[in-house]
Write the structure tokens for this entry.
Amino acid sequence: MTELTQEKARIGAPSGQDFIAGMTEEGEQLNQINPHTGPLAGAATKSHSHGGGVGVPDSSRAGRLTSYKLADFPLITGREEEWRFTPLKRLRGLDRVGVNGVDLSGAAPVITVEKPAAVTVETVGRDDARIGSAGIPEDRVSAAAWSSFTEATVVTIPVEFVATHDDVTTLTLTGAGDAPAAQHILIHAKRFSSAVVVLDHRGTAVVSENVEIVLDDGAHLTVVSIQDWNDDAVHASAQQTKVGRDAKFKHVVINLGGDLVRITPSTRYAGTGGDVEMFGLYFADAGQHLEQRLFVDHSAQNCKSRVTYKGALQGENAHTVWIGDVLIRAEAEGTDTYELNRNLVLTRGARADSVPNLEIETGLIEGAGHASATGRFDDEQLFYLQARGIPEDVARRLVVRGFLNEVIQQIKVPALEERLRESVERELAAGAL
Amino acid sequence: MSTLEIKDLHVSIDTEQGNKPILKGVTLTIKTGETHAIMGPNGSGKSTLASTIAGHPRYKVDSGSITLDGEDVLAMTVDQRARAGLFLAMQYPVEIPGVTMTNFLRTAKTAIDGEAPKLRTWTKDVKAAMHQLRIEPEFAERNVNEGFSGGEKKRHEILQLELLKPKFAILDETDSGLDVDALKVVSEGVNRAIDGGNLGTMLITHYTRILRYIKPDFVHVFVDGSIAEQGGPELADRLEDEGYDRYLVAESAQA
């Protein structure tokens, strides 16, 4: 009885059962991704975690170390919970800033802007007072970028400005080469404004990026981050959002291109009545690593969150990772949350990891749930469609299109939907399906 | 008038225990307008025949031929066979994630006809066919077979039969798992397709029950991979009374 009340309800937490081969209490040992020499898990893994002090178990998301200072973070070994799926060797040094002269002094992707007249986009120095208003870095790679960037881009949506459907603010970030770089972007939606901001990443880059997003009270903001990089790009992006009282935030992550892309969106509520929708769409080809780790921190009353991520994989060593951490703190009464991840594996040799985590510290909530399913487009499905006259390539496309369209339809930015449909078609064509 | 001709067909599958012959010389000819019931005990090869005609990759044709109006069916891919006019109503229709029935039906119709159906008449045809099969309109927006009950899946197979209008329909145990009401609805659909006048039908079934609703012209009894007996509808009546025992007894006596 007492044990039950003391124990946090952690759905998805390891049970006391025997472990599957290759699995330990700390999760899967991905030796082939990050080989290590130490003991397998347990104490070795724990020694790298950072408890949040008295009363917070170090496995809780609430206990994760946050700091602006790179030096506060120990070196990444690949055995940490937040790095265990990432092939560190392919980060091209983003994880090793400060070691053996590795730095982020490369040129950051060049930003070009399209925007409605009322929206301001400025380039500011790192001492600008607005910087740091949304969050604190939660991992070493993010902290490295924070320590390294020289100038930041600040997008401001003015008070009560209401953009029409066509008034999309688009920042196109074009990679400036493969020297490791740092980037910093801040998007500030002021009181009762309503706007859509698109971050469109293209070209070749090795970049660690911090995106801060602030919604003042009553603001409605959609931020779409498209990663349509060239095949050789490496991109880590921490996208932290602070959602004001009664604000409505929609976050969309589209991961298509790049060798390694790792997006870590975190959302926090600064007041009651916040409403957050987080959508993601990813399509991994042979050899690509696309990782999305999101965190919704319910720390205020009567806030809502909905998370829907869908991914398709095709080709040898296509790898996707989806981690959905949702924390409902004791004070967040009346929370309503649901997260969902679906993966469609189209060919052999691809791998989708999906881990939803729900921590609930109060029973006084509206609802909390999650779902994760990874399915294979298999020979029987193909046979069924072909037996109705549909050629094999059309059949595969039919399935993928239908699967991903569910997310595209939710974005509700018409100009973007068309673009994304075309991107999905291009991915399908590229996969020689 | 079309002819589906199966001659001395031998089919095997590869299992972990090695190659296993299933069909051991099947010869059968079906013409437009004819309904052939294929009956037999479990494991006699009925479903193998159906899947082989449709081109399921699991089944290996060792010898023999299948032709449709003289064209070599075995040389065609699965989708080519469907476009040539063969339709298999599956025993276990699979779920297709992400594809709505509406999208699927239109894509299949376009593939089979070689051009997209006229939107207005097509939508009307689909609605009417769904209504006749007592399929609720909301199924049009559901993913193919996803979360459908056994009976709903079978009704959707017949919906496709009615909309795609093949030359030959192979119904693989369409009656299995259906209650009497669903069996009637499904049989009505098959009869509508037959009454259209341009269909040859191969009705594969374990039970005689469905033959009360769909009248066969010919009955073939499968035992151990070949046809043990064939005749007219009266053979089905005899099977209803006697079951398959006498074939199995004969077989074990031989062995």
Remarks:
- Residues 32 and 200 of chain B are 4 Å apart (CA to CA).
- The first helix of chain B runs from residue 46 to 54.
